[in-house]
Amino acid sequence: MLNPEKGWFGEKQVTPEEKTQRVIGVFDNVASRYDLMNDFMSGGVHRLWKDRFVRMIRPRGSVGGVAQHYLDVAGGTGDIAFRIRKAAGAEAKITLCDLNDNMLSVGRDRSIDKGWGHDFSWVAGNAESLPLPDSSVDVYTIAFGLRNVTHIDTALREAFRVLKPGGRFFCLEFSRVQPDFLAKLYDLYSYTVIPRLGEKVANDRESYQYLVESIRKFPSQEKLLARMKDAGFESARYANLSAGIAAIHSGLKP
Ligand SMILES: C[S@@+](CC[C@H](N)C(=O)[O-])C[C@H]1O[C@@H](n2cnc3c(N)ncnc32)[C@H](O)[C@@H]1O
After folding, report:
1. Which of ligand 1's atoms lies nearest the C-alpha of 149?
2. What is residue 126's three-state secondary structure?
3. Which of 61, 63, 200, 218 is deepest in the core (most CB within 10 A)?
4. Does residue 219 form part of some domain?
């Protein structure tokens, strides 16, 4: 299967290895201001999307007496894992995996502030080669992460591999806005306001320019759905959020 995005870092063409290194660099730069910038850029709406995402998962500490294992890939500073922890309670096993140590380190500090310092496994790793055994996870989540991965199809196959039969996959990602007039307004906002906000708030225009460009390069709702099916997922579907600014894709490992 082709990976049409593998040579792209935003709108610049780079080698796949360079893309991975540049993505690490972006999140090294933004880690300390990441949470603040999310609120600035989205006016807090990212919190509502993440709440909806986790509600769709319906996290539970255990099923039939067996503790559930949640894997949050590209887990960053912990927004999804913390919501899962809150909903599922202490019984659930929650693993966060991320390519970037600085993002994980901010996440670890936040978990200590919440009094959950011992409740998560923090794993440095790549979504394309997860350091987890086959069929070991009940629920796989990835929020605003898949867009940054160099080989999307490899990451989807890895998600399928680590899930148990009957395990569920959930992806929250920026997507395609509809109708066209809204898409044009959204483009105007994102290409003009977001890089400027990045410059003013995080003193880093380039990383936020990458953010905007990477959104445009990411596959549409339907294309991602087709690629999930190619990776083996059944019952694959998606739900748009805010007219498609973001979308939640979900699927089942049979
Ligand atoms: C936009 S942040 C999302 C963080 C968190 N999931 C959230 O929703 O707030 C993207 C994260 O993906 C991580 N990332 C990028 N490429 C990755 C890869 N190939 N494997 C694992 N994590 C990756 C980055 O280091 C960063 O922490």
Report:
1. 19
2. strand
3. 218
4. yes
Atom of ligand 1 nearest to the CA of 78: 5
Give the residues across from 170 on adjacent strands.
141, 250
Among 159, 96, 169, which residue's Cα sits nearest to residue 139? 169
- Amino acid sitting at position 80: I
Q: Is the CB of 149 under 6 A from ligand 1?
A: yes
pLDDT by residue (tens digit) across 167-212?
999 999 999 999 999 999 999 999 999 999 889 988 889 888 988 9
**Does residue 3 belong to any structural domain of this protein?**
no
Residue 77 has pLDDT above 80, yes or no: yes
Residue 145 near ligand 1, beta carbon < 6 Å: yes
Percent of the chain with pLDDT over 90: 81
The span from the first CA to the last CA of the chain, in angstroms, equals: 21
Residue 30 sits in a domain whose CATH number is 3.40.50.150
Residue-range definition of the domain harbouring residue 78: 8-252
What global pTM score does this model have? 0.95
Range scoring the smallest mean pLDDT among 37-41, 112-116, 249-253: 37-41
CB 76 less than 6 A from any atom of ligand 1: yes
List 94's β-bridge partners, or say none.
Answer: 70, 120
Residue 2 belongs to a domain: no
Average predicted confidence (pLDDT) for the chain:
93
Separation CA 147–CA 154 (nearest Å): 13
Amino acid at 81: A
pLDDT in tens, 124-159: 999 999 999 999 999 999 999 999 999 999 999 999
Residue located nearest, by CA, to atom 11 of ligand 1: 74
Tally of domains within the chain = 1
Atom of ligand 1 nearest to the CA of 155: 19
Ligand 1 center–CA 181 separation, angstroms: 30
Residue 1 is assigned to a structural domain of this protein = no
